[in-house]
Write a structure and sequence with these properties.
By secondary structure, the chain is an all-alpha fold. It has 19 helices and no strands.
Length: 390
């Protein structure tokens, strides 16, 4: 017989679920509001479970995450500004959502993707109104501070819900994807576009493999029918003389130089502008003295800041998560459309992260961690077996 205290407390559980859905929803609107709701959601879910809801099968990922946090702390302590570097440990709180969301939304995995979809659709409307006001050449950003962050949230919402749209009659979710996809195009953010292409391929392979032709057809349609500024931005993909590509390549060389100088512990978290080689300054008027705030690449950024061992631990997190996802897929343990959406969102995040520091955007990474809970939701069966008070 299960112990009475193994049962979740109904009121904190419902409050935690609501706060977590609100957190995901607000990712499309306000980082301040999202980060205010996040600890409240974790607190309520902690109280509901009277502890941490560790999911079976997540051990390898937990160990890799612990190693990544430890290497981050060591890098901070070894740097010239330890206190400033240790502040980077606050970025690990979204990772906790993987376990809390897996426990709280077991059997109802689609709800978190729906919350993100609704928030993104409303935010997309704000962005589209900016295009009407400023013209089609304006890179819309909704209520978020930067168009790249806005594009990342739009891409995440689109990919998380795409498999559900593909496997059901087109309803409100399909309608919500239209303003999101349009807004994503008008951000003119190539890294997010590439992420969506990769994620859409995975979503189609998982749900409708015979429809793979939709992806190249969509690319051709955009190339032929999109507004002029969007077409011009798309054509710049193959132009290595494009200033953005030139700057990205120079930042890549700077990152490799920084890794060679500090291969074990890096230059310290959040110290890239101070450690960036001045001779690698780029011709971008938005950067002070040509020094970028980050390297526009997750892998280079983490290795340069925290060292190669930290990068290996980071890779271990995702390899372990992918293993858990494959296992959940084979066992049919969770909703297949929700799992396909999670896989698509993670793929899009990583491909975009080759050209942008997506890990540094809390508005993107926080909802991503909630979506990463899907493969573990089927392993957290305690709530389904012993439901709390209703």
């Amino acid at each position: 017989m299960p112990l009475p205290d193994a049962r979740p407390l109904g009121v904190p559980l419902r409050a935690g679920r609501g706060l977590l859905l609100a957190t995901v929803f607000c990712a499309a609107f306000s980082i301040s509001l999202m980060q205010t709701l996040l600890p409240l959601a974790i607190l309520c879910l902690w109280v509901a479970r009277r502890g941490f809801p560790f999911a079976r099968g997540s051990g390898a990922m937990a160990w890799s995450l612990t190693a990544f946090a430890a290497m981050t702390a060591m890098s901070a302590l070894a740097g010239p500004a330890p206190f400033h570097g240790l502040r980077s440990l606050t970025e690990f709180s979204p990772f906790l959502l993987i376990w809390f969301a897996a426990d709280a939304f077991a059997g109802r995995e689609h709800e978190t993707a729906d919350a993100l979809l609704i928030g993104a659709a409303l935010s997309a409307m704000v962005g589209l109104s900016q295009s009407l006001e400023h013209g089609l050449g304006y890179r819309i950003h909704g209520t978020l501070p930067h168009y790249m962050t806005f594009a990342g949230v739009m891409a995440l919402a689109l990919l998380a819900s795409l498999p559900r749209v593909l496997t059901r009659p087109i309803g409100w979710r399909g309608a919500a994807l239209l303003p999101i996809a349009t807004a994503l195009l008008l951000t003119q953010t190539r890294s997010a576009w590439l992420g969506v292409i990769a994620g859409a391929l995975i979503a189609l392979i998982a749900t409708r493999p015979r429809w793979l032709w939709i992806v190249p057809a969509g690319v051709i349609a955009v190339a032929l029918l999109a507004p002029g500024p969007v077409r011009d931005r798309a054509r710049s993909f193959g132009n290595l003389d494009d200033p953005t590509w030139v700057n990205r390549l120079e930042m890549g060389r700077a990152g490799l130089q920084m890794i060679q100088e500090h291969p074990l512990l890096g230059s310290g978290p959040r110290r890239l502008p101070e450690a960036y080689p001045p001779e690698r300054a780029v011709a971008d008027p938005t950067f002070e003295n040509g020094i970028p705030p980050h390297l526009h690449n997750n892998l280079l950024q983490l290795a340069a800041e925290r060292g190669l061992p930290a990068l290996l631990a980071w890779a271990g997190i995702w390899i372990a998560w992918l293993g858990a996802s494959v296992s959940a897929w084979r066992r049919g343990a969770v909703n297949p459309a929700a799992l396909a959406g999670s896989l698509a969102a993670v793929a899009g995040f990583h491909l975009a992260g080759l050209f942008e520091y997506t890990y540094g955007d809390a508005e993107i990474f926080t909802p991503l961690c909630v979506l990463m809970a899907v493969p573990f939701a089927g392993r957290n069966t305690s709530e389904r077996a012993h439901p709390g008070p209703s």
